[in-house]
Design brief:
- By secondary structure, the chain is mostly helical.
- The protein has 2 domains: 1-217, Farnesyl Diphosphate Synthase (Orthogonal Bundle), CATH 1.10.600; 220-356, Farnesyl Diphosphate Synthase, CATH 1.10.600.10.
- The protein contains 16 helices and 2 strands.
- A two-stranded antiparallel sheet has the order 1-2.
- Strand 1 (104-105) and strand 2 (108-109) form a beta hairpin.
- Helix 1 (2-29) runs antiparallel to helix 2 (38-51), helix 8 (187-213) packs across helix 9 and helix 13 packs antiparallel against helix 14 (295-307).
Length: 356
């Protein structure tokens, strides 16, 4: 596990320096008129949010996927693919914060709330600028691939991956909102939301891009890659949902019970509804969607989850999906290089135990 963490830290350090350099050059390349004051501020906010925190797991997946097929370093196209992945992530976070009305992102103000503070009393202006900032990040994620110094065939294939990932993520956001209209979504719906909203663009796309950069056609292996991506996506989403209620607020940086207050039908909320009955379930249901729900009530729901074995069951489910993802990666050994396969095998078991 220490080796996995070391490699992740190395990828993050190198990429963050590259990401900062990208934004340093972006102002000159964006082509905005000199008279515009709002455009430089938009780029400043995108830069701040993009460089603030983040584990860069997508970047690590990209590089390790390339290593599955080759031991060459600094492959053409990898830097552009990494920038594209993280710019698309920034786009998603900006729009997520608008949809969720979230004031905080990674320990600082969300772009939406930064604009609200700058334009008090002009809600439509703040909303419009935040939407446009997210849109710009999405278009920039494709532009970096168009500018990549790689053969035209590879460039086209990479753009195709990112276009598909972006549209899947938007569809995922749509059905994520639809999910909350179901009083009790079944597990299949939750898995589908996870697959579209996060697994396809956060895990599957980096795997495909890394293999493409290494000169490997991912198509023959797509079924294996999809299985791994979905399993990782499920336990990661389960973990995020779990930490929303059971995490240490000083570590997660968020108030406990946000999903309950917002009425989100997450994996954890579903477990609470199916694992309780009578007055206990009524308490959970009354808290759902109540933004004024007190910390005392959230604390009681946490206690209830412990008493009824719900917390233990959630942890067991996360572990089960992480172990399944690890086993899936272990089955890659006949096709790919042993060291990166070992990375993909170890990653789920390391990740599922993280506290933030």
């Amino acid at each position: 596990m220490a080796r996995t963490q070391e490699r992740l830290a190395g990828y993050r350090q190198r990429f963050d320096a590259r990401f900062a350099a990208y934004f340093d050059e972006l102002g000159e390349r964006i082509g905005a008129p000199a008279l515009s004051r709002f455009t430089p501020r938009c780029l400043e906010l995108l830069r701040d949010q993009s460089l603030r925190g983040g584990k860069r797991l997508r970047v690590a997946l990209l590089h390790e996927a390339a290593r599955l097929a080759t031991d060459e370093e600094d492959l053409p196209g990898l830097d552009a693919a990494a920038l594209s992945i993280e710019l698309l992530q920034t786009h998603g976070l900006v729009h997520d914060d608008i949809i969720d009305d979230a004031p905080v992102r990674r320990g600082g103000p969300s772009i939406y709330y930064a604009y609200r503070e700058e334009f008090p009393g002009r809600e439509r202006t703040a909303l419009g600028l935040a939407v446009l900032a997210g849109d710009l990040a999405a278009f920039l994620s494709l532009q970096v691939l168009l500018d990549a110094e790689v053969p035209a065939e590879l460039r086209q294939a990479m753009i195709g991956v990112q276009l598909g990932a972006a549209s899947d993520a938007v569809v995922g956001q749509v059905i994520d909102l639809e999910r909350d209209f179901c009083p009790l979504p079944d597990e299949e719906l939750l898995h589908t939301v996870t697959e579209y909203k996060s697994a396809r663009y956060s895990i599957l796309a980096p795997l495909r891009l890394g293999l493409l950069a290494a000169g490997e056609d991912p198509a023959p292996y797509d079924e294996r890659l999809r299985r791994y991506a979905l399993l990782v996506g499920i336990y990661e989403q389960m973990r995020d949902d779990y930490l929303d209620l059971f995490g240490d607020e000083s570590v997660t940086g968020k108030s406990a019970g946000t999903d309950i207050r917002e009425g989100r039908r997450t994996y954890t909320v579903r477990a609470l509804l199916t694992g309780t009955s009578g007055r206990e379930r009524a308490m959970v249901e009354s808290a759902l969607g109540d933004r004024g729900c007190t910390g005392e009530t959230i604390g009681r729901i946490r206690e209830l989850a412990g008493e009824r074995g719900i917390e233990r069951s959630l942890r067991s489910d996360m572990r089960r999906y992480a172990e399944a993802a690890s086993a899936e990666a272990a089955g890659w050994r006949p096709w790919w290089r042993a060291e990166p396969v070992a990375f993909f095998e170890a990653l789920p078991l390391w990740s599922v135990d993280r506290t933030h």
